[in-house]
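Write out the bound-state structure for GCB.
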Amino acid sequence: MAFASLYPRFTRTRRIEDLCGTWDFQLDPEGVGVAQGWPEAGLPDPMEVPVPASFNDLFTDKGIREYYGDFWYARRFFVPGEWCEGNLDLRFDAATHRATVYVNGAEVASHEGGFTPFVAPIAQVVRPNDWNLVVVRVSNELTEQTIPAGGVATMRDGTRIAAPYFDFFNYSGLQRPVRLLSTPTERVEDLSVDIALTGNDAQVSYAVTTNGSHEVRLVVTDEDGVEVARATGATGTLTVADARLWQLRDAYLYTFTAQIWDGETLVDEWYDEIGLRTVAIEGAKILVNGRPVYLKGFGRHEDSPVHGRGFDPVVNKRDFELLKWMGANSFRTSHYPYAEEQLYQADREGFFVIDEVAAVGMLRSTKNFADAVTSASGATYFDDPLVHEKTLPAHLAALEELVQRDKRHACVCAWSLFNEPDFSSENAVPYAQKVFDACRELDPQRRPRSYTNVTRCRAGIDKCTHLADFMMLNRYDGWYVSGGPRIADAQQILIEEMHKWEELEPNKPFMFTEYGTDTLAGLHKLPSVMWSEEYQVEFFRRQHEVFDMFDWVVGEQPWNLCDFQTGEGILRVDGNKKGAFTRTREPKAVAFLLRDRWTHIADYQD
Ligand code: GCB
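---
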């Protein structure tokens, strides 16, 4: 698993073939693919699709858009003979939500979880210097025992459609790049770093994992390619003297190259770009390099027209430009691990990323946004023994893959272990404790851990707040609670709750990780009414007044950067409209309000 999480790098010893492009695609509603020999023969009646992309919005057919079940991808790929001397792997950056991979008919990998990478070792089954067939069976089904959680609705004619427990469309498919990787037999499989600062120097303790026993070296170069430190041995500490630190919105990255040497012969090398910084919590402050920060940014989605959740570097670039224009310095990867390229971009741009595992929907409800305020059924998610037996292992596995993949990123400054879980029951505590403990064990940098607290579990109801190193609140007072003419009440409700938090969790940093109102771009009203741009502006002004009353509020990330696609329903008009920008990335009035506010709040508060 460790090797799978290393981002593919072309080096003196490693080769990459990009397998993005046109693939065959076929739905399998009856689940007959295996019995009919699709893994060996390929797909009998395929359509063409681009990879990476979500398949849902490519076609004009509603049945395809809403399709729920197994679906298949296939393509041929050429394997250069000289690549067959060492390891050969197919790397899938993401297959949503689970996949089984066959090469030339042989099953070579299967993977659960739609937002983290995995590899299929294929050296034993390929024909060198020839064309080979890869066939992938993917499923987009979800249950209460999967991460994320969801259900299914069966129509009278037997058609099944997704009933996700979350407020975003269940986009699926091969949504991120696929690559063929050639690496030496003996190779670097993992690198961990932990950073401490002493005076102007950075001490980096590191661990390189290889699958062999030859000598390991770690070489560090600066952005000009000048060597600044090196060490020999699989584990150790090295010092970067006079280190230029990675700072919020002022990034600097060193290249760490892990090598294996056999005497004078280079066996393998792999590199990563790593920022030197520390993150800590001290009292009610979040510190980066020992300095208190104020976080400004958004909860986001990987979502855009036609591509769905398909990897899109153009949209990602635009989103970073919007964030910078507004004076933002952070975002949360709501509600799943984002493409690795986004994190590398955040590393380079100096953004503080709250990295979220896809543990969303742990609330007994098929519409968590509607039932988020009060429990509709009374039963809580964590009262079900199956959740502890089956969901917990899936959650821990998803967390392990996330931390393993993202542990070296300077931008990843905190982990979000759940989004809006129903922590109103004592039965949630042992579950949450295990997830928090696992995170601490897995992360060599011991970054702060948290989860977003849902309105339903306001101050005093949530049983797990003691576990969080800092608290993240998602609040919609003024929208789902006391909206419209009651907005002044909403503000009081929030102030009262904040005073309660002050008593319950004194000396702990808090931030708002969601607040917002659905707003139809272009709808104007004087005086404001719900759904108008003016109402969104008024709501934000009032929220900010409350945040500014409490100096232990150390950040604000409204919901959402952009409008995004969701399942259909009477509360959604072609998706969720809480964006500061439309789905096509045009600003609503509130974007200017945020820009004005955030360009006047310093990243560092010292
Ligand atoms: C929430 C969820 C988010 C929803 C949002 C909303 O609390 O975390 O996924 O989209 O509310 O707009 O209702």
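---
The mean pLDDT is 96.
The longest strand covers residues 188-198.
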